[in-house]
Structures are given as C-alpha cells and as structure tokens.
C-alpha cells in the first residue's frame, strides 16, 4: 500500500509526470486499486444557480462580466427550482449535487441565506451537497457546514507562478486562505485546475505540488481541459491532447492516492476509449448533465452507455463520511 505523503518535492512530481506514459498509467492504476474500487465512478451533477455577471477576470471564464460571450446573466435561482433540479439529478443516478454561483466572494446577505436553504434541502435528499461560490470567510464556511454542506469547490486553476497571467483580480494566497477556512470548518475540500491555458509543464507540476503539499490533500481533485469559449482571452487556445489529461490524472492519482480524481471539463470531446484511458489512469469521478456551468458536457444517455460498455457503476453517496450531516428525509417536491 502506498503511503499518503504531504512532502512531495517538485523534482519527484516532475519525475512521475515525465515518466513513459504507459509506465505512468500502470503505476497510477496500481495505486488506484490499492485505495479505491476501480469499478466505481462517482457521478456528480453541477448546476449554475447564479450565472454570469461576475466581477472577476479569470481568462478562461465566459461568466466574467468584462468579456463579451454568449452567456446570459441570471440572478440567483429560487430555492424550489434548485431543489427540483437536485431531485431530478438524484433520480438519474447522481450522488453529489454541486451548486455554482458566479460570485467573487460570498456576502452575508439574503442571497447567501437562500444558498443555505438550498444546501439544507439537497442534504435532506440524501445527496452529498457541494458548492462553489468564490471566496469564503471562516464564519461563512461554518454556516455552510451547519446547513449540511459536504464539500466546497475552490480550484487553484494553475501554478502560483502562472496565476497572475490568468487572473489579476485576486491572488493565489486568497485562494489558499479560502481552502484553509473550508478545511477548518470540517468541510471536504475539492480543488484542482485547468490545463490548456498556455501554461508550461512546470506550471502543471507546480499546481500538483501545491495541492499535494497542503496539510491534508483535497478529498477531490478536478482535472479540467480548457474548453475555449469565444469572447474570452483564451478563445484561441489549441485543444489539449488526451495524453496530457492522462499525465495529469495519473500524476494526481499517484501523489494524492486517496483523493477522488475528477475528469471534468473537456470530457465532451473525448470518446469512450479516451475516457476509459482516464479511468485507467486513476480518474474516478465525473460530472453528469448536459452542461458544466455554461460549457457543454456529454448527455445522460451517452454516460449510461459509457458505464455499460466499461462495466463500471456509480459510487454511493457518503461512502467516506463517518456519518451524514443530518438524518435524511425525503422531501416531497
Ligand atoms: S471562474 Fe468564477 S470567479 Fe472567475 S470569472 Fe468565472 S465565475 Fe467569476
């Protein structure tokens, strides 16, 4: 059994990342089998509960107000609407429901109170509930925890060195502070990044270095391939190859053996064989639904076929939790 280490050096990570790809996959698959059931893949649904109009300038994001994209601004959804969507996601096999809001940070206002209601409602349905709402203070993280939040997503996106080329409206330290608040509140941490934004291999290694040297590894590490969107500064970026995704996934799997490694944005462009390669390299979580916030994602039917073809099954909710945050009751909708 491989040890869980928080003292990886950049050189060690680079040596893994740069190893011959079939060796890398073999090693990652071995680590994966020591810590996870390889037949199981977690299925998460992501819903954008507040879309567009964001004051930040993330170069990849069509929701930033300053870029001219096709994204239509939508104020925070009503609690009932969100709970109906969560119910449908559960019916179609999702065990984790993530709600995303295009905010710079959470403010202590009525919108946040509504989000807390959404969290409570989804939790009561027996799903793992996750949010991605921007920066959080300690007390906001605690409120979310008390409402039943299971996980919080806050991506590092890239290396500390390259961060300023992608986002200028906040710092890497702001990111790490929020991750610290989430961890302190006892919420499961979901944090990863995006490849294909013009970063170097060293930057990819740098991001994995930061994640794997956090005092505790994130429970979930999304690996995204950029989906270039017209109107954003990264609209002309070329597509990353599946081998680059495989290298990232396999390296993340080896250095953070217990984490769920999530094959996220960019999956829509992969065929079954490419997705299978990512699962072999240690990915064990995907997003379901036809939209990933605002970018396309494979449709449900295709995912059902994918699971059948590969003979894999969706992972049950709360598998790693000692006990769920509340006793479940079915909410009539
Ligand atoms: S990634 Fe998030 S914070 Fe950045 S512009 Fe998009 S919605 Fe705003």
Automatic annotation (TrEMBL):
<dbReference type="InterPro" id="IPR058240">
    <property type="entry name" value="rSAM_sf"/>
</dbReference>
<feature type="binding site">
    <location>
        <position position="61"/>
    </location>
    <ligand>
        <name>[4Fe-4S] cluster</name>
    </ligand>
</feature>
<keyword id="KW-0408">Iron</keyword>
<dbReference type="Pfam" id="PF04055">
    <property type="entry name" value="Radical_SAM"/>
</dbReference>
<feature type="domain" description="Radical SAM core">
    <location>
        <begin position="39"/>
        <end position="267"/>
    </location>
</feature>
<feature type="binding site">
    <location>
        <position position="58"/>
    </location>
    <ligand>
        <name>[4Fe-4S] cluster</name>
    </ligand>
</feature>
<feature type="binding site">
    <location>
        <position position="98"/>
    </location>
    <ligand>
        <name>[2Fe-2S] cluster</name>
    </ligand>
</feature>
<comment type="pathway">
    <text>Cofactor biosynthesis; biotin biosynthesis; biotin from 7,8-diaminononanoate: step 2/2.</text>
</comment>
<keyword id="KW-0001">2Fe-2S</keyword>
<dbReference type="InterPro" id="IPR024177">
    <property type="entry name" value="Biotin_synthase"/>
</dbReference>
<keyword id="KW-0411">Iron-sulfur</keyword>
<keyword id="KW-0949">S-adenosyl-L-methionine</keyword>
<dbReference type="Pfam" id="PF06968">
    <property type="entry name" value="BATS"/>
</dbReference>
<dbReference type="GO" id="GO:0004076">
    <property type="term" value="F:biotin synthase activity"/>
</dbReference>
<keyword id="KW-0004">4Fe-4S</keyword>
<keyword id="KW-0808">Transferase</keyword>
<feature type="binding site">
    <location>
        <position position="190"/>
    </location>
    <ligand>
        <name>[2Fe-2S] cluster</name>
    </ligand>
</feature>
<feature type="binding site">
    <location>
        <position position="262"/>
    </location>
    <ligand>
        <name>[2Fe-2S] cluster</name>
    </ligand>
</feature>
<keyword id="KW-0093">Biotin biosynthesis</keyword>
<dbReference type="GO" id="GO:0005506">
    <property type="term" value="F:iron ion binding"/>
</dbReference>
<dbReference type="InterPro" id="IPR010722">
    <property type="entry name" value="BATS_dom"/>
</dbReference>
<dbReference type="GO" id="GO:0051539">
    <property type="term" value="F:4 iron, 4 sulfur cluster binding"/>
</dbReference>
<comment type="function">
    <text>Catalyzes the conversion of dethiobiotin (DTB) to biotin by the insertion of a sulfur atom into dethiobiotin via a radical-based mechanism.</text>
</comment>
<dbReference type="InterPro" id="IPR002684">
    <property type="entry name" value="Biotin_synth/BioAB"/>
</dbReference>
<dbReference type="GO" id="GO:0009102">
    <property type="term" value="P:biotin biosynthetic process"/>
</dbReference>
<keyword id="KW-0479">Metal-binding</keyword>
<protein>
    <recommendedName>
        <fullName>Biotin synthase</fullName>
        <ecNumber>2.8.1.6</ecNumber>
    </recommendedName>
</protein>
<feature type="binding site">
    <location>
        <position position="54"/>
    </location>
    <ligand>
        <name>[4Fe-4S] cluster</name>
    </ligand>
</feature>
<dbReference type="GO" id="GO:0051537">
    <property type="term" value="F:2 iron, 2 sulfur cluster binding"/>
</dbReference>
<comment type="similarity">
    <text>Belongs to the radical SAM superfamily. Biotin synthase family.</text>
</comment>
<comment type="subunit">
    <text>Homodimer.</text>
</comment>
<dbReference type="InterPro" id="IPR006638">
    <property type="entry name" value="Elp3/MiaA/NifB-like_rSAM"/>
</dbReference>
<dbReference type="InterPro" id="IPR007197">
    <property type="entry name" value="rSAM"/>
</dbReference>
<feature type="binding site">
    <location>
        <position position="130"/>
    </location>
    <ligand>
        <name>[2Fe-2S] cluster</name>
    </ligand>
</feature>
<dbReference type="InterPro" id="IPR013785">
    <property type="entry name" value="Aldolase_TIM"/>
</dbReference>
């Amino acid at each position: 059994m491989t040890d869980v280490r928080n003292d990886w050096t950049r050189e060690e990570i680079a040596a893994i990342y740069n190893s011959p790809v079939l060796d890398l996959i073999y090693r990652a698959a071995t680590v994966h089998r020591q810590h996870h059931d390889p037949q199981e893949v977690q299925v998460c649904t992501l819903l954008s509960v507040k879309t567009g109009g964001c004051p930040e300038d993330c170069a990849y994001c069509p929701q930033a107000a300053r870029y001219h994209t096709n994204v239509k601004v939508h104020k925070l959804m009503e609690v009932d609407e969100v709970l109906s969507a969560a119910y449908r996601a559960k019916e179609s096999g999702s065990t984790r429901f993530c709600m995303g809001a295009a905010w710079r940070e959470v403010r202590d206002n009525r919108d946040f109170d509504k989000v807390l209601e959404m969290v409570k409602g989804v939790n009561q349905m027996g799903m793992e509930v996750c949010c991605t709402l921007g920066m959080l203070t300690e007390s906001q993280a605690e409120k979310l925890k008390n409402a039943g939040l299971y996980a919080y997503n806050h991506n590092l996106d890239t290396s500390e060195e390259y961060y300023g080329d992608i986002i200028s409206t906040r710092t890497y330290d702001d990111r790490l502070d929020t991750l610290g608040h989430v961890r302190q509140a006892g919420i499961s941490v979901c944090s990863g990044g995006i490849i294909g934004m013009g970063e170097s291999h060293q930057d990819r290694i740098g991001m994995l270095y930061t994640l794997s040297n956090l005092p505790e590894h994130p429970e979930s590490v999304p690996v995204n391939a950029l989906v270039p969107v017209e109107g954003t500064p990264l609209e002309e970026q070329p597509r990353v190859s599946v081998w680059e995704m495989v290298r990232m996934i396999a390296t993340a799997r080896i250095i953070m053996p217990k984490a769920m490694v999530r094959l996220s944005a960019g999956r829509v462009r992969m065929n079954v064989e490419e997705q299978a390669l990512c699962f072999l390299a240690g990915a064990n979580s995907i997003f379901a639904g036809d939209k990933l916030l605002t970018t396309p994602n494979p449709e449900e039917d295709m995912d059902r076929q994918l699971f059948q073809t590969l003979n894999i099954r969706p992972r049950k909710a709360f598998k790693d939790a000692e006990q769920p945050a509340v006793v479940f009751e079915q909410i009539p909708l």
